[in-house]
Hints:
Residues 166-180 have low confidence and may be disordered. It is globular and about 60 Å long. A hairpin with a 2-residue loop joins strand 8 and strand 9 (131-138). The chain is mainly β. It is 2% helix and 56% strand. The protein has one helix at 175-178; strands at 2-19, 27-30, 36-39, 43-44, 54-62, 66-81, 114-115, 120-128, 131-138, 141-144, 149-173.
Amino acid sequence: xxxxxxxxxCARAQIRDTLIISQGDVTIELDDQGYHHIRYxxxxxxEAGAPELPIVxxxxxxxxxxEDVQLIANVLGEQNLExxxxxxxxxxxxxxxxxxxxxxxxxxxxxxTIYPSTSAEIVSDSRIxxxxxxxxxxxxxxxxxxxxxxxxxxVAISLDYTIGAVEDSKASQSAYRKNK
Length: 180
């Protein structure tokens, strides 16, 4: 009689990062149509009709065997920007072979809500050139269209995952079989 013993070992791991917004790095421009354009970095919300707010994307390398990847985001602090703002509505993505002549107004769904409702999210988990890369999108600006308030927020994230199971199998004879 053979007894098969299998041990499975898992390890939890995490990557931590923090995004701090310095108001000195934020530029606000008023266009001739009365819309405010918030400038910080080069990426913006691309959902047509949503407030066009700057976003920050960061990529993190994790092991190929990582499982149960979860993002935990915490707002460390918020700071209201002085003034009342009328944020320019995002026009969405336009294919390079087309010209968009339609102007997307600020969608009604954002008129009485704080946008965006989340501070960070995983937007992709992919394998590129032998690496596993998780892309996190940070939303460091919050806009309330109802009262025109614009807020910056500092965000801390923890990207938690389990490193795949390492199995160790050993076959052993039962005491009864050994003694025969």
